[in-house]
Design goal:
Elements lengths: L3 E4 L1 H10 L3 E7 L4 H14 L2 E5 L1 H7 L8 E5 L7 H10 L5 E5 L5 H13 L4 E5 L8 H6 L9 E4 L2 H10 L3 E5 L5 E2 L10 E5 L8 H6 L2 E4 L11 H19 L1
Helix pairs in contact: 1-2, 5-9
């Protein structure tokens, strides 16, 4: 069976709390006790083996990731279906709030978006199977464990998925620097909504842009006319939350 790595204190502890299958946890011998004690306690409750190892071994397991002296070997991440995301909204008695990522390629951006999606109450994130970052140890670490709570659906065709969402009565809002309508104070966010965030460099693809019901932009007052994709996504997600709280 394939296995995946999870690295970092928050990522590992949230994976344990969420009930994800963890096969084994390694703690660096040099790790501070007060940092790893909560992980040891959660692992004991879950019946997961915890082993000490030299920090260099952990470095080799997850090269290039700041693991904080904590690495876990877990079952592969289970992607959701789009229907699961809609069912999650229905179960809470809420209008669907989804995030669609049109070829977000940087795993750090995906992780940051998942973290904000959890904080703002989004019911899930949808990514295309091709030309898009997938759930990795880097994404998990950047999300601070939010990857365990925000369902992610991978779809073969984002355009067809948008058509399905529109048929289900969901308003599709694209973010585009060329849009004329500002993101702030927009009443489209109070009902069922799917927010589309484009690629870090190219923005949304032409076909995806054309399928959006409305395009909104973030006002730019400085000399640099763009924001990091995850920052832009965060601003829009909080605008959705603000609108929903104001309307509740």
């Amino acid at each position: 069976m394939e296995e995946e790595w999870i690295a970092g204190k928050h990522s590992v502890i949230e994976a344990l709390k969420s009930g994800r299958t963890i096969n084994k946890i390694w703690l660096a011998e040099q790790a501070q006790k007060h940092l790893v004690q909560p992980i040891i306690a959660e692992a004991k409750k879950a019946g997961v083996i915890v082993q000490q190892a030299d920090k260099r071994k952990l470095d080799q397991m997850v090269p290039g990731i700041q693991h904080q002296g904590v690495v876990a070997q877990a079952a592969p991440y289970a992607y959701a279906e789009v229907e699961d995301l809609l069912a999650a909204a229905a179960a809470k008695g809420q209008a669907p709030f989804l995030i669609l990522l049109d070829e977000i390629e940087d795993p750090h951006n995906l992780g940051s978006i998942l973290r904000t999606a959890d904080c703002t109450g989004a019911h899930g994130v949808i990514v295309p199977k091709r030309r898009s970052a997938s759930i990795t140890a880097t994404v998990s670490k950047t999300s601070a464990g939010a990857v365990e709570y925000v369902p992610v659906a991978r779809v073969s065709n984002l355009g067809q998925t948008i058509d399905r969402l529109k048929e289900a009565g969901i308003w599709v809002v694209g973010t585009d620097v060329e849009a004329t309508e500002p993101v702030f104070g927009n009443n489209v966010f109070t009902g069922p909504v799917a927010v589309v965030i484009g690629n870090e460099n190219k923005g949304m693809g032409r076909l995806i842009r054309e399928k959006c019901d409305v395009l909104v932009k973030l006002p730019m007052e400085g000399r640099i006319n763009s924001l990091n994709a995850s920052v832009a996504a965060g601003v829009v997600m909080y605008e959705v939350l603000r609108g929903r709280l104001a309307g509740s």
